[in-house]
Amino acid sequence: MGIRKQLIRRRRGLAPLEFVLWLPVLLFVMALMVNYGTMATWRVRSEIVSREAVWRMRWPRSGASEAPPTRPYWPSDAVMTTEPDTAPDLLDIPAIDHPVVRGPMPNGFVVRPVLDPTRGAIKGVSEVNRQYPLLPRIGSYASGDVGTPLIDRQWSSAMMGIPNMYRRTLVLYELPRTDPSLSRAFGRAVQSVLSIPHFSALAVLDRDADIRKYTGGYVDFHPRVGRMCELDPQVVYDRQVQPLVDIRQADGDIRLGEISRLPRTMTNYFLGMYRAAVQQMQQRIQDLQDELNGTPPPDAQRQAQILAEIAALEAEIAILLPKIEQLEHYQARLPQIEDGLRSAASAVIP
C-alpha cells in the first residue's frame, strides 16, 4: 500500500505536460475542421453560382445585362461562365428516334439538325481558388470546375426566329429539287382550267348556291388526296392515288375511281338534298294549314301571314320538283354513262 502511494506521488504534475504535448495536435485538428467547413462553404457557393451562370443564359436572356454576384459572396477573380455540353443519355429515347426526326430519309430529303438536343445542351461552370483561413502554409483551396447542365432548346417559333404563320417543313427539311418541267406542266394545267368557257359552271363543285341555301354551307366535291406522311411514291399511289383513278382489277374488270364516280356522287347528294327540302317544306305547309283551320282560327293579320308563307313555299317547291325530275332522269342514265367510262378506260389501261 505504501509503494502505491509513493508511485502516485511521483506522477503529480504530468497533466500540464500532457496538455502541452497534445495542444498542437488539438489545434491542428481544429484548424482542419475550420478549413473543411470553409471548403464546403465555397463548394455550395460554386454550385449556386454555376446554376446562376447557366440560367442567366437561358433564352431569351444572354447574361450580358445580368449583374454579377456580389462580393464577397463570389470574388471577381473567380470563374463564372458557360460552355457547350453533351446531351444526357435520357434524351436518347428509341420511341422518338424516327428517320423523319433525325434522318436519314429517302428520295433526296435531308433532315436539318434543328431538333438535335445537343444544340441546346449547355452547362454553367464555376471555379474558385481561395487561401485556407488556417494553416496557410499547406497551400490554397481550388474547387475545380463545378458544372450545372441544362437543356435550353424549346424549338418554339420565337426561339427559331420563324413567323407563326410559316411552313415549318422548309425549316425542318431540305427538300429535293423537283424537275422544273413538272411545275410548269402543273401551271399550264391550272391556266387551262381557268380559261375554259364554262369555268363558271364548275362552281357546283365547291360553291353551289343551292347547297348554301338549303344546308347553310358549301360542300367540296373535288376528289382529293388524303393526309399522310410518306416518302415512298408507291405507297402514296397505292393508298391515296389509286382510289381516285380507274384501275384494272385482278379479274380483268375496270373499277372506276372517285373521279369517274363523281357524277353519281353529286347526283345522289343533290337528289337527297332537294327531296329533303321538299319534304320539309311540305310538312311546313301542312303545319300552317292546321294552324289556319284551327279552333279558334287565327286573326286576320296572322291568316294573311300564313297564306303568304304557304304561297312562297309552294312556289319554292314548284322550282325544285323539275330539278328533282331532271336529276332522276340523269340518275337512270348513269349506268350507261359509267359503262362508257369503263370501255374508254379499258382501251388505255393495260
Please provide a written account of the structure.
- This protein has 2 domains: 2-171, no CATH class; 198-348, no CATH class.
- The chain starts with a helix and ends with a helix.
- The chain has 350 residues and is mostly helical.
- Helix 9 packs antiparallel against helix 10.
- Helix content is 50%, strand content 9%.
- The protein has a 3-stranded antiparallel beta sheet.
- It has helices at residues 2-11, 14-55, 99-102, 157-160, 169-172, 180-194, 209-215, 233-241, 262-292, 300-348, and strands spanning 79-84, 110-111, 121-127, 129-131, 140-142, 146-151, 173-174, 247-248, 254-255.
Descriptive terms for the model:
350 residues, mainly alpha, three-stranded antiparallel beta sheet, two-stranded antiparallel sheet, 10 helices, 50% helix, 9% strand
Give a short synopsis of this structure.
By secondary structure, the chain is mainly alpha-helical. The chain has helices at residues 2-11, 14-55, 99-102, 157-160, 169-172, 180-194, 209-215, 233-241, 262-292, 300-348; strands at 79-84, 110-111, 121-127, 129-131, 140-142, 146-151, 173-174, 247-248, 254-255. It is 50% helix and 9% strand.
